[in-house]
Specification:
The chain folds into four domains: about 240 residues, Lysozyme (Orthogonal Bundle), CATH 1.10.530.10; about 60 residues, no CATH class; about 60 residues, Membrane-bound Lytic Murein Transglycosylase D, Chain A (Roll), CATH 3.10.350; about 50 residues, Membrane-bound Lytic Murein Transglycosylase D, Chain A (Roll), CATH 3.10.350. Helices cover about 45% and strands about 5% of the residues. Keywords: Signal.
Length: about 475
């Protein structure tokens, strides 16, 4: 019976996630860069949540008008008796809700928008859909690029909660203006793409029918379900007791805040110093794909506010060492195919479409499958490609082979030393002490866990010959 319950719950999560995944056609071009937001005020958190929980605050701020509607009631019935789902999703969401609700409040947008990541991803930062939509907002690569989200070998802004939230809210603001300040149409367009909503409106106008969301019968089924599901969640979060739902206990000590840093660091090494699990810190900062923050310029990591002071102190004292990481460009790889006769494939790079190109020809030039080329670029058989357009070409087999060779060459250039473990040592501290990555240290040794690290044991380290 227990196995059956687990299987049923897993199926439920899959249904909820798949029904929320964003359609790949929702990209909107924007000339504006991603807006830079300062760290949220800790005073705001203390003042706002001194006498109310984040759930109570959200409920009070949710003022989007609703109507008695059988489609909404159907979704409310769908959510009834799913306490385990609400426990899990509210536990994941609660730490993010403090910062997220502040951003929405600042922009004077409907607080109901905080519910979109629940539908889209159940607040899973690392999730990727079959349409290659990623992160809590399920943003596809083209939309992310249009709204300033960097995507390269080391970092994917779609998995970065701070960056992706800024992009998603920018997109929703654009859609709100596009659809004459109608939030239901804007949210529907977020799900299906503005083109489909415009087509549905045009068809209704031609037939002399109303053009509000509820009257658009030609929208995709998932979009017709999307708005009722959002408004069903609004009803439940505004009055959970009425629907027999218990949300996770809210504690403002869980609140996450972005903390600015100006040097690259290894997340696992930082976790070791500030008393948080490496897995947890990586999950909070899933945008850093390799577990290392940006090589250049000011950036941030997302932390529980209670750890901010300790983190900053550890950075300033050098306990969290500067990571050695190569700079990466804003795009997966700036290499493009300049010669149409060149048969050498790009590795996780771009191809610039030339006159006379077809998908089959481009796939042949780059030694990849047409199906993969379509998947990486969210293309269908009906997609139009034009000269000058750039396509992502991700030849992973070649990339992996080149990476393995590069790693071997890198080790050959270093000096091998044998380090004797001392009292208080951890793998993270040993890596910091020698200026190497924790992942590298683990790859050079059979010891993969601090629990197996014993006083006096020997650890192999390859250090730069000039250090």
């Amino acid at each position: 019976m227990k196995r059956l319950q687990t299987a049923l719950f897993t199926t439920l999560l899959a249904i909820l996630f798949l029904s929320g995944c964003q359609n790949s056609s929702n990209a909107v071009m924007s000339p504006d860069p991603v807006k830079k937001h300062d760290n949220p005020s800790l005073n705001w958190i203390d003042d706002t949540f001194s006498e109310q929980t984040v759930w109570q605050y959200m409920a009070k701020e949710m003022t989007m008008p609703t109507e008695s509607n059988s489609r909404i009631e159907k979704e409310i019935d769908f959510y009834k008796n799913k306490q385990r789902y609400f426990t899990d999703v509210s536990t994941r969401a609660e730490p993010y809700m403090y910062w997220l609700s502040e951003q929405i409040k600042e922009r004077k947008m409907p607080m109901e928008l905080v519910l979109i990541p629940i539908i889209e991803s159940a607040f899973r930062t690392d999730v990727v859909s079959s349409q290659n939509a990623a992160g809590i907002w399920q943003i596809v690569p083209s939309t992310g690029k249009n709204f300033g989200l960097k995507q390269n070998q080391l970092y994917d802004g779609r998995h970065d909660v701070v960056a992706s939230t800024t992009a998603a809210l920018d997109l929703l603001e654009r859609l709100h203006k596009m659809f004459d300040n109608d939030w239901l149409l804007a949210i529907a367009a977020y799900n299906s793409g503005e083109g489909r909503v415009m087509q549905a409106i045009a068809k209704n106008k031609k037939q002399g029918k109303p053009t509000d969301f509820w009257s658009l019968s030609t929208l995709p089924p998932t979009t017709k379900q999307y708005i009722p599901r959002l408004l069903a969640l609004q009803s439940i979060f505004k009055n959970p007791e009425k629907y027999g739902v218990k949300l996770a206990k809210a504690d403002k000590a869980n609140a996450l805040i972005p903390v600015k840093i100006d040097q690259p660091i290894e997340l696992s090494a930082a976790a070791d110093q500030i008393g948080i699990s490496a897995n947890r810190l990586q999950h909070l900062n899933a945008g850093y794909k390799k577990g290392v923050t940006n090589a250049n310029g000011e950036h941030y990591i997302l932390l529980p506010r209670a750890l901010e002071t300790q983190f900053i102190s550890s950075i300033e004292s050098g306990q969290i060492a500067r990571a050695k990481v190569k700079s990466s460009t804003d795009q997966p790889n700036t290499q493009t195919a300049s010669n149409s006769k060149n048969k050498t494939p790009n590795t996780q790079g771009q191809y610039t479409i030339e006159k006379g190109d077809s998908l089959s020809l481009i796939a042949s030039k780059n030694n990849v499958k047409i199906s993969d080329l379509k998947k990486w670029n969210n293309l269908t058989d009906k997609s139009l490609i034009l000269p000058g357009q750039k396509l992502i070409v991700n030849s992973t087999k070649l990339a992996n082979a080149q990476n393995n060779t590069a790693q071997k060459n890198d080790t050959n250039k270093r000096q091998k030393i044998v380090y004797t473990v001392k009292q208080g040592d951890s793998l993270g501290k040993i890596a910091q002490k020698h200026g190497v990555k924790l992942a590298e240290l683990k790859s050079w040794n059979t010891i993969k866990d601090d629990k197996k690290l014993k006083l006096g044991s020997k650890v192999t380290v390859y250090v730069d010959s000039n250090s």
